[in-house]
Amino acid sequence: MGRVLWVCVTVILLGNLMTSREPETRDNVSIQIINFNFERTHVKWNVSEYLAEKNLTFFYGLDKASPSQQCSHYTFDHGYTAGCLFKAGDNRLTFLLKREEDEVFERRNVRLSRYLKPSSPTNVSFTWREDSVTVTCSDLPISGLTYEIQHKSIFDQKWLPNTNTICNITIDGLDSEKCYFFRARVITRMAIYGSKTYPSDWSTVTHWRRNKLEDSCTDIIKTPSPKYVYIITSLVVFLMVLLLLLFLRKSA
Ligand SMILES: *[C@@H]1O[C@H](CO)[C@@H](O)[C@H](O)[C@H]1NC(C)=O
Ligand SMILES: *[C@@H]1O[C@H](CO)[C@@H](O)[C@H](O)[C@H]1NC(C)=O
Ligand SMILES: *[C@@H]1O[C@H](CO)[C@@H](O)[C@H](O)[C@H]1NC(C)=O
Ligand SMILES: *[C@@H]1O[C@H](CO)[C@@H](O)[C@H](O)[C@H]1NC(C)=O
Ligand SMILES: *[C@@H]1O[C@H](CO)[C@@H](O)[C@H](O)[C@H]1NC(C)=O
């Protein structure tokens, strides 16, 4: 049973690795779709040499509509059309790419939720207690999301993640002497959106020592101060003199 489960998990993980965010290639065209927060959609294409140095035109239709609407906002690469940006949220999309009158690529009934990229968290705020912090941000009006806060000190190699289904996450066991980096993002849940979605961009990194916001966390590795070195040196010299005196007294 355990083994079967393990195999299933492995298959799911591998499947995820293989399908995740790979542009789809067909008929000399490769396509990438990004749906920004159910507000705007960007369809991007790369073409093989066969179609290079040609302006492709993009036609689309939402939900049941046929792809009759011409793109009104192209994005360009080296002066040629390379993408189209348009308003579309949780819709189905049918689109086609044409070179002059020839159709070079078509896709029907794409569920745009499969390509969701949520907005990055806004209004991120920190409430400190002794050795814990609660990080909150504004929840997006979209279900099926997970909020992720990562933190690390300069002694940590890796970012440490904490997640929750609402943006209210408490992180315990922090050292009040240490300065920590924090960053936040929003990810989609695989069970709801599948594996081709994108995480949001990271929020800007902030630095905190206890409940104080700092500009950076660079000042932590302490070199012993000159005063410290002086005291230790004096102590060592003092001990050596003492030992010498004892030795002299014994041998006298
Ligand atoms: C793809 O490119 C090849 C040449 O590299 C061409 O013969 C073929 O017709 C192209 N296919 C499409 C659908 O444009
Ligand atoms: C197009 O090619 C660039 C560079 O090779 C790559 O980064 C990008 O993901 C490709 N986009 C698509 C839609 O295939
Ligand atoms: C492609 O479209 C762009 C923008 O409309 C235009 O500047 C460029 O000259 C076009 N290239 C060709 C080969 O038609
Ligand atoms: C930011 O958070 C505060 C409370 O934490 C809330 O009153 C305010 O409306 C939020 N602003 C936005 C833009 O969500
Ligand atoms: C976060 O959760 C805690 C306890 O679960 C609650 O006391 C607090 O009011 C919440 N904060 C926000 C901003 O929702």
Give an overview of the whole structure.
The protein has 252 residues and is of the alpha+beta class. Helices cover 19% and strands 41% of the residues. The protein has three helices and 18 strands. It binds 2-acetamido-2-deoxy-beta-D-glucopyranose (5 copies).
**How many alpha or pi helices?**
3
Number of structural domains = 2
Overall strand count: 18
Small ligands present? 2-acetamido-2-deoxy-beta-D-glucopyranose
Give the CATH topology of the largest domain. Immunoglobulin-like
The whole-angstrom Rg is 29 Å
How does the helix and strand content classify structurally? alpha+beta
Classified by CATH, the class of the largest domain is: Mainly Beta
Instruction: List the helices and strands in order.
Output: HEEEEEEEEEEEEEEEEHEEH
Strand content: 35-45%
The second-level CATH architecture of the largest domain is Sandwich
C-alpha termini separation:
83 Å
The average pLDDT value, as a whole number, equals 86
Global morphology: elongated
Extract low-pLDDT stretches.
1-20
Protein name: Cytokine receptor-like factor 2
Membrane topology: Single-pass type I membrane protein
Keywords: Disulfide bond, Glycoprotein, Membrane, Receptor, Signal, Transmembrane, Transmembrane helix
Subcellular location: Membrane
